[in-house]
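Could you please consider the sequence and fold appended to this message?
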Amino acid sequence: MNLELLLGISVVALLFVVGYLLLTRKKVQGVPTQPAVDLEEIRAQALRDAQEIVGKALEEGKEIKSTAEKEAERIIKLAQEEADRIRNTIKEEAEKLRQDLEIKRRETESYLAERKQEVQKLENSLQQKELMVERRLEALERREEELYRRERDIREREKELEQIQRELQSRIRNLEDKEKEIESLRHREILELQRIASLTMEEARLEVLRRAEEEARLEGLKIMKRIEEEAKERAEFEAKKIITTAVQRLSPEIAINYTTTTVELPSNEFKGRIIGREGRNIRTFELLTGVDLIIDDTPDVVTISSFDPMRRELAKEALERLIEDGRIHPARIEEVVSEVKKEMDEKVRKTGEEACIELSLYDINPSLYYYIGKLYYRTSYSQNVLLHSKEVAYLAGLMAEELGLDAKMARRAGLLHDIGKAISHELGGSHTDIGIELCKRYGEPDPVLNAIRAHHNEEPVRYAEVALVCAADALSAARPGARRETLEAYLKRLEKLEEIVKSFKGVQNAYAVQAGREVRVIVNPEEMSDEEAYMLSKNIARKIEEEMQFPGQIKVVVIRETRHVEYAK
């Protein structure tokens, strides 16, 4: 309304101004003014025009207002629609955010669970490290005790050196006295020679010097011989002392490897389940593991017989799992034996790693861990090869420390000097050649290679540490009860028996059981018929008779088994 009023007033004012300007212009130009009646008419006409204009303005204002109100309603409606759209969008985004938050919450819970597992693993790792720290502390305590003993030995040696020094001073004084006596004799001899022989002073001096030189040389030879004998006695005493100290400080684990292992049963009824219907379970177990199961009248005990320690360990672990599981049938036996074989490789590798950590050899190539661990399942004259190698490493390292040599290199060479025995029975050939090739492949230093050959006198010793390894090897082998010739010969006979059988074409595997009185031969049914399997048994028996000497007789059992498997779907 204010807008319309202002518009009307503006139009009226404009008309008055226009009329005034017209009158003023006419007066200026000399035109006579019209009567007052004309002015009134003009004013009245102007008012009418102004009212008409005001009316039009009011109508236009109403139209503008109506249009503005419609436009405002449209804008408000659009604003409401926009607000509804925004509200819906916000709701959708809020729902999406809620879903995202739910997903993130689940991810967070999963992440926290994983972190919890990692924390648990870290705690387990920390516990293992704590055990290692405790072992290190014990080793440090032992080292401290050894340092104390060495300090005491050093004090004793200092006392001995002081005594030797006093003896040397006494000898020096005696020599000085003898020199004075010689000088006196020389002077008297000069006078006597001049009197008797009518020699000149120079001639007499030369003669006296010659005689004094001969006497001094003889006296020096006597002293040198005595010192050399004392040095030899002292060196022998010190060597014996160092070896004795090293042996006293070592407390090796004594492991006697027999050819049988026993497994305890929860009850006697398990014996029947192990045998199975018509003996199929025990037959499958023996074929897969290469051992002989002895089930006798001994209550709650089954005996596993095999000359190979690794087979016995595998069979023992598999049998214990089958007993614990309770399901004993051929398919389950195959499954368990397969699982244990896979786990045995990791167990062997871990055994080798623990041996290296125990000897503080952290820079050995991890690929050698498996071969070092396999030494635990090898014997030499009934002596466990891994325990023997660790014993050699300890002895060589202790003696190297006493002599101020590289103890770490001595331990390394001692541990790896018999590494070829880990696979020599698989590849054939000298274990020294196989050990050299294996160590070269994994970058072992030259002293280790020298120790592998030198401890069997195949090449001369080139390093002082290698000499200690050879001495430690002899000490370990010579320890009372360490080795037994008869058992080693017996095991070699069983190994040779299996090698003879495996040399025939078509033989898949062979196992010597019953203390070598029976050999079981498994052939590939696709490569050999029943008639050929029959001839194979005869050929094997003939070759064993030609190449081996054995008491009694050896039973050759050739097994040709065909399986047909189908699945019902």
Residues 36-196 form the longest helix (161 residues).
